[in-house]
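User: For documentation purposes, I need each entry recorded in a consistent format: the amino acid sequence on its own, followed directly by the corresponding C-alpha cells. There are two entries in this batch. Please keep commentary to a minimum and don't merge the entries.

Assistant: Recorded as requested. Entry 1:
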Amino acid sequence: MGSSMEGPKAEFQRRSYWRWSKEDFFPEESFKSWPAYVSALGQTHRRFRDRLLGRSDDATELGDLRRQSVNDMKRCLTWWDLTWFGFGSVIGAGIFVLTGQEAHNHAGPAIVLSYVASGISAMLSVFCYTEFAVEIPVAGGSFAYLRVELGDFAAFIAAANLILESIIGSAAVARAWTSYLTSLLNLPKNSLRIHTNLAKDYNLLDPIAVVVLFATATIAMISTKKTSYFNWIASAVHTVVIAFVIVAGFAHAEPSNLKPFLPFGAQGVFQAAAIIYFAYGGFDNIATMAEETRNPSRDIPLGLLGSMSVITVIYCLMALSLSMMQKYTDIDTEAAYSVAFKSVGMKWAQYLVALGALKGMTTVLLVGALGQARYTTHIARSHIIPPLFALVHPKTGTPIYATLLMTISSACIALFSSLEVLTSLLSVSTLFIFMMMATALLVRRYYRRDVSTPRDLLKLVSCLLVIIASSMGISAYWGLRPHGWIGYAILVPLWVAGTLGLQLFVPQCRKAKVWGVPLVPWLPSLSIATNLFLMGSLNSKAFLRFGVCSGIMLIYYLLIGLHATYDMAHGQYQRPDLVEAEERKAAAGAGGGEA
C-alpha cells in the first residue's frame, strides 16, 4: 500500500502551478486541431442558440465551476474586513479624481446633487448585489448571477464589460495617482509624465502608474488576509484625512462660491452624475469576495450596505466643501482639493490632502486587484477565457494568473491614455452592468423553470420590456428635450404601469432565503430606470468607444468564447490537473480513514 501511494503523490508534487502548454489554455475539443476548429465554426449558429437559451444554476456555480480552479480560496474574511474593503475600494478614486473635473466642466456647485443622484442609483444596485451575493457566494460576482438568471450569452456581455471596466478603472486611478504625487512634490502639472508626439489624450506616457499597479497587485497576490490588514491601516489614515478635508473645507467656506448654483442647468448635473458614478463602482468588488467570506449571509449585508451608506454621506459632504472653498471656474481638474486648500492660504494642507488621496487611491487599486482577479477567475472557470486564469495557487490561496492578466492589461492602458478618455468609457460599462443586474434580480424573483407557466413567462417578459423601453425613452427624451414635459407625461406612467403589472399579474416564484431586496419589484425597476437615465446623460463619444469595444468582444465570442463555453457545458474538454486534484483528495481521504 505504501509503495503504491508514493507514485501518485510524486506525480502530484511534480505538477507545477506554473504551466504554459496549449492544453492549459485551450483544453476544449473544438481547439484540439485545425479541422476540429473549422468544424466548430460550422456549428456556430446551433451552438449560439444553445448558449443563448442555456442556464446555469446555484449548485453548478457553487460546486462544479469552483472545482475548475483546482485549489480552493481561503475563507478568511469577516464583515469587518468587508466593511473596510468597501471604504478602501470606493473612497479615493472618484471623490479625489472626478469631483474637480465634473464640477469645473459640467455641474458647477451643484456637483453635490450629482453625488446624491449617483448615490441613490448606487444604493439600489447595492441592494441587488447583496441579495445575489448572499445566495450565490462565489468569486464571479455579477457574471455568476447573470449566468444563472439570464444565460451564458448575457453573462458573456457582462464578463466582457466587467473586464473592460476593471482594466480601465485601474488605469484611470493609476493615472490620477501620478497627478497627486506631482501635487505632493509641488512640481508642475504633467512633469512626471513623458511627453511624446502621439495623438492628443494619448501623448503623455505615465511609467509611475505602471509601477503602482504592479506594486499593489503583488500585495494582493501574496495573501487575501494580509491585504486586508494593509487595507485597514491605509483606510484608517485615509479616514483621518477625509475628516480634516470636511472640517477644514467648511471652516474656509465662502457661501458666495455656490452662486450660480446651476451654471450648466439640470442637464449638467445628470451628465456629471453619470461620470462620477465611477466613484461608487468599487462596491461590486466586495461581492466577489463572498467565496472567501466566513459567513456570507451575515457578513455581506453588513459589509456592503454599511460601508456604502456612510460613503454616500461622505461624498456629498466632501463635494459641498470643495464647492464652497473655491469658485467652480477655478477648481483644478487634476488635483482639486490640494489646489483648493492652497487657494485659501492653507498651502501646507495641500500636502496632507495629496498624501491622503495617494493613500486612498492606493487602497482602491489594492482592493481592485483583489476583486478584479476574482471576477476573472470565475469567468475563466466557465472557459470564456482560457481556464489557466482560473487556477488558484495552492500556497497563497489567491488567483495569481488572473491578477497578472488584469494588471498587465491595465498597465498598458495607463501608460498611454488620459483620465477623461478612460472615465467616460468606464461609466457606460458600469451603468450597463448594474442595469443588467437589476433585470436579473426581477427574473430571479418572478421566474423559475420548474414552476413558472408559459403564460407567466410571457407576462414577465412583457412587463420587463415596458420597464426597459420606457426607461430608455425617458433618458432619450431628457437628452433631446431637457425642458419638455409631454414625453415624461407619457413615459413615466408607462414605467409605473410596467412595474405595477409585474407586481399585480406575475406571481413571485422565489423568496429571498436570508436577505432580500425590499419593495420588489419597485426598487429593482427604479434601478433599471436610473442606470439607463444616467447612461443617456453621457456624451456620444463614450457610446462610440463602448460600441467599438463591444463589437471587438463579440467577434472574440463568436470565434473563441462561444465554442469554449459550449464544450465546457457539454463536458467536451480534457483537464488532467482536475483529475489529479480529485485523486489527490481521494488519496488524502483514504489515508485519513486508514489512520
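Entry 2:
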Amino acid sequence: MGEETGEESKASIGKAIEAISSLISLSHSIKSFNVKWQLIRTKLQELYSGLAALQNLDSGFDPSLSSLISAILASLRDCYDLATRCVNVSYSGKLLMQSDLDVVAGKFDRHTRNLSRIYSAGILSHGFAIVVSKPNANACKEDMRFYIRDLLTRMKIGDLEMKKQALIKLNEAMEEDDRYVKAVIEISDMVNILVGFLDSEIGIQQESAKAVFFISGFASYRSVLIRSGVIGPLVRVLENGDDVGREVSARCLKKLTENSENAWSVSSHGGVSALLKICSCGEFGGELIASSCGVLRNLVGVEEIKRYMIEEDDTMTTFIKLIGSKEEIVQVNSIDLLLSVCSKDEQTLEILVRQGGIQELVSVLSDPNSLSSSKSKEIALRAIDNLCFGSAGCLNTLMSCKFLDHLLYLLRNGEISVQESALKVTSRLCSLPEEVKRIMGDVGFMPELVKFLDAKSLDVREMASVALYCLISVPRNRKKFAQDDYNISYILKLLDHEDGSNVSSDSGNTKFLISILMSLTSCNSARRKIAASGYLKNIEKLAETEGSDAKKLVKKLSKNRFRSILSGIWHS
C-alpha cells in the first residue's frame, strides 16, 4: 500500500481510539443493563489496547488491517447508537435491547480476535515495541486497573515479543507498587493468562514465572493461584525450563507449599522427583538447589511424602552430600532439610548415622579456615543439638569425630553468634551422663565457661553457669577446677556487689554463682580457698538478701572456719 493510504489508515486508527474512549465514558452514565455494559466496556478496553499499539507502527499497513479498522468503526457507530438509546431510555423493548447489546459485544470480541490473528501472523512490523505510560505513584485505582487491562490485552493479541514486553512491564509495576498485584488479582482472567504462559516459550515462561512469584508473595492471594492450576505448570518449568525459570518456579513452590494442603498437589504432578533430580545431578546453581531444598523441607511435613522420598534410592546420600557444598546457601538449606527429615524419626536417624551424615555435620565445624560461614556453623550446631543427644548411636558417632575438640575451638575463637550456639550445645552436653562430663573437664571446657560468666547477655551467663555447675558436680572435675586459683577468685569477684566495676553481678546471675560455690565446698581445697579469701564478708551480706542457698554456703564455710580455729588451738 502507498504512503498516503498508510497515513489514512493511521488517521482511522486514531479515530477509532477516540471513539472507544468516548463510548467507554458514555457507558458509565447508563443506568440500565449494567451487566451487559460492563461486558462491553471490557471488550472495548481490550480493543483499545490493541489499536493503541498500532500507533507506533513505522511501516506500511496490510489490506486486512485496513479492512478490520473499517469494520471496527462501523461497530463503534452501532454501539454508540445503542448507548444513546439506553441513556435516553428510548428503546422499544428490553429483550430486543438485550439482544442488540449481545450482538455488539460479540462483534467487539471478533474484532479483538481478528486483530490478534494479524499480530500472530507477523503481518505487522516489530518496530512498534509496546510503549505504555504507567500511571504515577499517586494514581487512582481505576487508572491502575486500566493500565493492567491494557497489558492484558497485549498479552492476548500480541506476538511473542509483545507478550514478553507486556509481562516485563507488568513485573516492573508489581515490583514497584503492591497495589498492582491486587489489580492483577481483581481483573478477570489475568491470573489464568499468567499461569497459561508458564507452558510457553522460554522468554515468556521466565517473565510469567516472575509474575506468579510476585503474587505468591502475598499469602492471601495464593489460593487464587492454586485455583488457577498453577502447581502443574510450575513443576513442568522445574523439569524443562531454563535455569532462571527453574529458580523462580522453585521459589514460588516454596511459598505455596508453606500450606501443607498444597504438598499433595506438588507430589501428584511429579514435583518430588523433579526436585530430587535438581538436588542430585550437580549441574545447577546454588540458588536453585537451595530453593529446591526449601520446597522439599515443606513437603516432608507430610509423613507419606517423606516416606516416599526416603525410600527413593540415594535420597539421604544426596542430602548429606549437599552439606559439603562450598556455597553457604546450599549448606544452610540442606542442613535445614536434613533436620526436618530426621527430627523425631529413629529410622531416618539410623540412615543418617550409617551414611556418614554426622561426620558431614561435624566437618562444617571442623576446619577453622574452612569455607563454612558462621551461619552454616550455627545451623550445623542446631542440627547436632536437635538430632544427636537423644540417640546413643548418634552420640557415639559424634564423639568419635572429635566433636568436643571442634566445639571447644568455637567457644574460644568463634564469632559471637557462633560462640552462643556452641555454648548452647555445650550446656546440653553437660546434662549427659558423668562419663561425658568427665571428658569435657579433661579437655578444657571449664576455663572457657568461666569466661562467659560475666557476659553481657543474661541468657549466656545463665547457660554458662548451669553448664559449669553440671561439670563441677563430677568430683574429678571439681578437684581440677579448684587447682586453678583464678577460677575461684573470679567467681568470688563476680559475687562482690560492692565492686563497682562489675555490672553484671546484679543482673540475676547471683543464684547460679552461689550454686557453683556451694558445689565447690565439697572439695576441701576449694572450701579452704573460699573461706580464706577476702570475699567472705560479702558472701555473708548476700546471705541476708539472697535466700537459703547463700545461707547454706555461709553455714558450710563457717563450719570450716570453726574447725580451722579448733585445729589451731589443739596444735598450739
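Summary note for entry 2:
The chain has 33 helices and no strands.
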